[in-house]
Amino acid sequence: MENQRIAKISAHLYPSNSQVEDNSGLRKENCRAKGGAPGFKVAILGAAGGIGQPLALLMKINPLVSVLHLYDVVNTPGVTADIGHMDTGAVVRGFLGQAQLESALSGMDLVIIPAGVPRKPGMTRDDLFNINAGIVRTLCEGIARSCPRAIVNLISNPVNSTVPIAAEVFKKAGTYDPKRLLGVTTLDVVRANTFVAEVLGLDPREVNVPVVGGHSGVTILPLLSQVKPPSSFTQQEIEYLTDRIQNGGTEVVEAKAGAGSATLSMAYAAVKFADACLRGLRGDAGVVECAFVDSKVTELPFFASKVQLGRNGAEEVYQLGPLNEYERVGLEKAKKELAASIQKGISFVRK
Ligand SMILES: NC(=O)c1ccc[n+]([C@@H]2O[C@H](COP(=O)([O-])OP(=O)(O)OC[C@H]3O[C@@H](n4cnc5c(N)ncnc54)[C@H](O)[C@@H]3O)[C@@H](O)[C@H]2O)c1
Q1: Where does substrate bind (predicted)?
Q2: Nearest CA to ligand 1 atom 22
């Protein structure tokens, strides 16, 4: 009896075919912790990884989350048990391996995807393409089957190609809603805010730098002419900041010297963006973030710019606003590279 009660309490921590359930005869639907608190259901795919773990930790303390599903192909029982001990409101459930993908996704409002391999020194984001493209395709096929109305936050690189891949998968399945698919470029904004604040001698929390285009190298286009609070920069500062923002990822990859790419700042950025999506879903007004989305802002089918987040996802995609000459030149460079990366993603699914 006592054992049964303990098993019952902890049943929600384990994948549905775990030993706890087998021994006790308990089923997930019988456990007491059902996530009854009001809030959203969020799944993280790739939850045991370098980004996934701190992301899971931060989502567990997000008061807008009532149920948190952690899915990966390795190690989710451990991560789930660990995160599940935190005395915050969200109920945490773990799912391990492809056979449990459907259960992980059923009923989710928001799905965050940091699954894949990270960049190693000497690797470009495009080197990751073949591995991550296949992973993203499989996971998006699962989303199309199990939670086609969920908002999707795609982190897996190269974002410039994985977002078009996801769109093609959803189109094939007949579930594509461009408002609900968002490539996460928040880390570029977070870095831009930090580096610009450093140069201006301000608190980064007071600084807001729009970053548009895409999410790799020259496609990352910080609009320093539109920084808030309004600020002016010397040409030397503009060049230093643009270069540092565009290569912030490489700065971390090199400093980690073989141990992966940005994970902690990325988890922070992912939660900042996911929280904005959840506030939008809740109906808050004026939630605006930069993201890589289906877009008519340029002639390219996808582009990162400021978007208004609402009950249906990216409800409005904003124009770029006035650019100076330096930014116009940067935009042309960005578009050239972006066009090729987008096409690469589309061809991967259509081939
Ligand atoms: N958007 C951004 O700004 C940004 C920033 C940093 C990293 N990234 C990208 O995020 C991804 C993850 O990086 P990381 O450092 O956490 O890598 P990681 O290797 O530490 O973790 C990736 C996790 O994904 C899991 N995984 C692999 N295949 C899977 C599948 N089919 N289904 C579910 N999970 C699967 C792995 O088991 C692992 O736990 C990489 O593609 C990286 O390039 C994006």
Answers
A1: 119, 125, 157, 191
A2: 49
Residues 6+ apart with CB under 8 A from 250: none
| C-alpha pair distances (Å), 14 with each of 67, 143, 156 | 14, 21, 25
**pLDDT tens-place string over residues 185-202:** 999 999 999 999 999 999
Residues lining ligand 1, CB < 6 A?
45-46, 48-52, 72-74, 114-119, 128, 132, 135, 138-139, 155-157, 159, 184, 187, 215, 260-263, 266
- Look at residue 8 and tell me if it is in a domain: no
Q: Does any domain span residue 26? A: no
At 117 the pLDDT is: 87
**Omega within 30 of 0 (cis) for the link into 158:** yes
Between the CA of 75 and the centroid of ligand 1 the distance, in Å, is 14
Residues 224 and 140 in one domain: no
Dist. CA 72 → ligand 1 center (Å) = 10
Q: Is residue 12 part of a domain?
A: no
Closest residue by CA, ligand 1 atom 2: 155
The predicted pLDDT at position 4 comes to 58
pTM for the model? 0.91
- Decide if 215 is catalytic: yes
Question: What pLDDT does 127 receive?
Answer: 73
Q: Which of 12, 69, 85, 215 is catalytic?
A: 215
- Give distance in angstroms: CA of 202 to centre of ligand 1: 33
The answer to whether residue 2 is domain-embedded is no
Structural domains in the chain (count): 2
Beta strands 302-310 and 313-317 are antiparallel
For ligand 1, atom 11, which residue shows the shortest CA distance?
A: 156
Contact call for residues 348 and 136 (beta carbons, < 8 A): no
Boundary of a domain, candidates 183, 205, 236: 183
Give the Å distance between the CA of 68 and the centre of ligand 1. Answer: 18
Domain CATH for 64: 3.40.50.720
Residue 265 sits in a domain whose CATH number is 3.90.110.10
The ranges of the chain with pLDDT < 70 are 1-37, 120, 123-126
Give the pLDDT confidence of 273-302 residue by residue, as tens digits.
999 999 999 999 999 999 999 999 999 999
Phi and psi for 79 in degrees, rounded to 5?
-65, -40
User: Any binding-site annotation on 294?
Assistant: no
Atom of ligand 1 nearest to the CA of 154: 1
157 in Cβ contact with 117 (< 8 Å): no
Residues 146 and 104 in one domain: yes
What is the residue range of 307's domain? 186-350
